[in-house]
Specification:
One of its GO terms (cellular component) is endoplasmic reticulum. Functions as a nucleotide exchange factor (NEF) for Hsp70 chaperones which accelerates the release of ADP. Required for fully efficient Hsp70-mediated folding of proteins. Belongs to the FES1 family. It comes from Blastomyces silverae. Keywords: Repeat. The structure is a single chain. Helices cover 63% and strands 0% of the residues. With 219 residues, the protein is an all-alpha fold. It has a single domain, classed as Alpha Horseshoe (Leucine-rich Repeat Variant), CATH 1.25.10.10. Helix 7 runs parallel beside helix 10 and helix 9 packs antiparallel against helix 10. The relative contact order is 0.08.
């Protein structure tokens, strides 16, 4: 359940239960003040008044447009932009696995158009940044994602795609040991020796050193 639906459900329950906080005393006739009702979030209020679609529905609709062969490239990129803004929300990013959206998102990394590859990498980076749940879900739902991102970061003909692939890799491995271990499997052994000790995902200096090496492909 997305955050606005959860807020709306709590508000509905609290305002449908009879008020039991008011009690009478036979000696002083005093009453206890009623608890103030929970406030609705702006998003939940908008959905209540306008019957607006949930974030989950918007995410699925955006991905459907992105994947549809009938959608123009310009409209795909608009849908991607909307999708990226939605998954900036932690709850929405964590719902990617539940909604079955990780797999089609990662498949966009192989799209013919560089704009789609770039947006795919960008969205992955946004979803996993500082989000251990999404980091784990990426590896679980799309085991080849990091190897694909690594290949893009080093070999894609478009600089912007390479830059966003590095961003996605950097976001995926920070403070997440399984992702760092997976990425290191694809780094040539001589480069791993050159970088020194970079096997601890919580060592930001070591991770930064690895990311700096990845960024050499951007020049």
């Amino acid at each position: 359940m997305d955050a606005s639906m959860n807020n709306l459900l709590k508000w509905s329950l609290e305002n449908s239960v009879p008020n039991t906080t008011t009690t009478s005393s036979s000696t002083d006739n005093t009453t206890n003040p009623a608890r103030a009702p929970r406030a609705l979030s702006p998003t939940a209020l908008q959905r209540l008044l306008l019957n607006a679609p949930s974030d989950a529905e918007l995410m699925k609709n955006a991905m459907a447009a992105i994947r549809s062969p009938a959608t123009t490239l310009d409209d795909k990129l608009i849908a991607f932009d909307n999708f990226e803004q939605l998954i900036e929300n932690l709850d929405n990013a964590n719902n990617l696995g539940v909604l079955g959206l990780w797999e089609p998102l990662v498949e966009e990394l192989a799209a013919e158009e560089e704009g789609r590859r770039m947006m795919g990498a960008w969205c992955i980076g946004t979803a996993v940044q500082n989000n251990v749940g999404a980091q784990g879900m990426l590896l679980s739902k799309a085991p080849t994602a990091l190897s694909t991102l690594f290949a893009l970061s080093q070999n894609d003909p478009d600089t912007t795609v390479r830059r966003k692939a590095v961003y996605a890799l950097s976001s995926a491995i920070r403070n997440h040991q399984p992702a760092l271990d997976e990425l290191l499997r694809h780094i040539p052994e001589d480069i791993r020796k050159e970088l020194g000790e970079t096997s601890d995902a919580s060592d930001m200096d070591g991770v930064d050193k690895l990311v700096s090496w990845l960024r050499r492909a951007l020049v």
